[in-house]
Every structure is written in C-alpha cells, then in structure tokens.
Amino acid sequence: ETGVTQTPRHLVMGMTNKKSLKCEQHLGHNAMYWYKQSAKKPLELMFVYNFKEQTENNSVPSRFSPECPNSSHLFLHLHTLQPEDSALYLCASSQDSDYYGYTFGSGTRLTVV
Amino acid sequence: RKEVEQDPGPFNVPEGATVAFNCTYSNSASQSFFWYRQDCRKEPKLLMSVYSSGNEDGRFTAQLNRASQYISLLIRDSKLSDSATYLCAVKLSQAGTALIFGKGTTLSVSS
C-alpha cells in the first residue's frame, strides 16, 4: 500500500460507544496529524505528533484520545461522543520540514447518533 | 479576525475562463504557504506550494504578497475538471506547528 490509509471509511456510533480510528502512512514521514472537517467550517487541527511525540493538542475535548505507537501509525480513540462530533476525520502526514505540504488519508466519515 | 480567510464563492465560470482566488492570513510570522484542492467528499490534495517569488505549474500560478499578507491562485484556460474547492494553507515559522487552513473557495466550471 502507498500513501496514507485510514480505516474505517465510514463509522456510525452511539453516544455511549467506544471506537477507534486508524491511520497508517507508508511515506517514511516523521509527523502525523488529526484534523476534523465539519460542514461549512475550515479544517480544524486536533493533534500533532512529531517522531511519535505529541507536540500539539488544539484544545480538543478528552472524549477524543490520540495514540501514536510509532511514526507510521496513528489512532484516534473515541468515547461518549456527541452528535456535534459527527464530521469527516482526516489523518495527514508530512516530512519534518516547514516546506513540504501534507499528504492526507481519505478520511473517516463519522456519524454519532 | 480569522487566521486564514478565503472568499467561499462559489465562482461559476465557463470553460476557458481565467479565474483567480485570494487568501489572506493574519499572522505575519507565517512562513510556508500552500494551495490544496478538495473534490466533493474526498480528502484535500496538495496542488502546489507557494514560493516568495511566485511559481507556475502548467495552467496554475501562485503568488505571495508578504506586505499585504495574502496569497493568490490563478487558473488559466479553466477545464470542467477544475471544478472543486480550493483550500489555502499557512504554516507559522514556529517549529512544531501545523498547517492552518482556510474554509476554501468553491469553483464550478461549466461548458
């Protein structure tokens, strides 16, 4: 596989469920990111990992919990979500440089019911 | 003031037209600039980086104006396949910070 792979593509979960989103990058990048995209809003940065270390947590509620076991894998653990958390969750990766753009995965479309 | 602002459009143009989008950013410490393209219900894909001296890639030209804090994207000879949302993204010079995106500008090219 190449690029950035996200699973699942679609997820419907109840407010009391616990689920996890998975992201894997095959590009040899050092940094990985979680973004949230809601309708009519810009992409919102959630978390940044650089060399497996979390370097940014953009005031994200604790019901979202990231995990980065190595530079190639990133998870987003979800529990007791709210309907307003329904959105497209995008994972991205990049080289450890200011001058390279990000490569995004195809996203997980999450619906909280 | 929002960190990165774009006119949401939509811009409706005929095939062959030239269209330009602007994107303003509020933080003068911004260092790197990019244009992304996002098709409906798909992920954003990097279209081009924006260099200080301006750069061109085929029908696409990107410009940076640091004094006025904006970047622009010019599309010449528009194709139907150019219909998409164009996102600008800005990165601060501070190490470890991530890209900040605008809401995007929607372009619709018709025959």
Characteristic terms for this protein:
heterodimer, A: 113 residues, mainly beta, seven-stranded mixed beta sheet, four-stranded antiparallel beta sheet, 11 strands, globular, B: 111 residues, five-stranded antiparallel beta sheet
Question: What's the layout of helices and strands?
Answer:
The complex is a heterodimer of chains A (113) and B (111).
Chain A: E1 4-7, E2 10-13, E3 18-25, E4 31-37, E5 44-50, E6 53-57, E7 64-70, E8 73-79, E9 87-94, E10 103-104, E11 108-112
Parallel strand pairs in A: 2-11
Antiparallel strand pairs in A: 1-3, 3-8, 4-5, 4-9, 5-6, 7-8, 9-10, 9-11
Chain B: E1 4-6, E2 11-14, E3 19-25, E4 30-38, E5 44-50, E6 55-57, E7 60-65, E8 70-75, E9 84-92, E10 100-101, E11 105-110
Parallel strand pairs in B: 2-11
Antiparallel strand pairs in B: 1-3, 3-8, 4-5, 4-9, 6-7, 7-8, 9-10, 9-11
Number of helices of chain B: 0
Overall 3D shape of chain B: globular
**Span between N and C termini of chain A?**
33 Å
Q: Could you say which structural class the secondary elements and strand pairing of chain B correspond to?
A: mainly beta
- Give the proportion of residues in helices of chain A: under 10%
Describe the oligomeric state of these chains in a short phrase. heterodimer
How large, in whole angstroms, is the Cα Rg of chain B? Answer: 14 Å
Q: Separation of termini of chain B?
A: 37 Å
In N-to-C order, the SSE pattern of chain B is EEEEEEEEEEE
Query: What's the rounded overall pLDDT mean of chain A?
Result: 91
Describe the largest sheet of chain B. 6 strands, mixed
Q: Sheet bearing the most strands of chain A, described?
A: 7 strands, mixed
Task: Give a count of the beta strands of chain B, DSSP E runs of length 2 or more.
Answer: 11
- Largest interface (CB < 8 Å): A-B, 23 and 25 residues
Q: Total strand count of chain A, please?
A: 11
Report strand % of chain A.
over 45%
Low-confidence stretches of chain B: none
- Classify the secondary structure makeup of chain A into a structural class: mainly beta
User: What does the radius of gyration of chain A come to?
Assistant: 13 Å
The sequence of SSEs of chain A as H and E is EEEEEEEEEEE
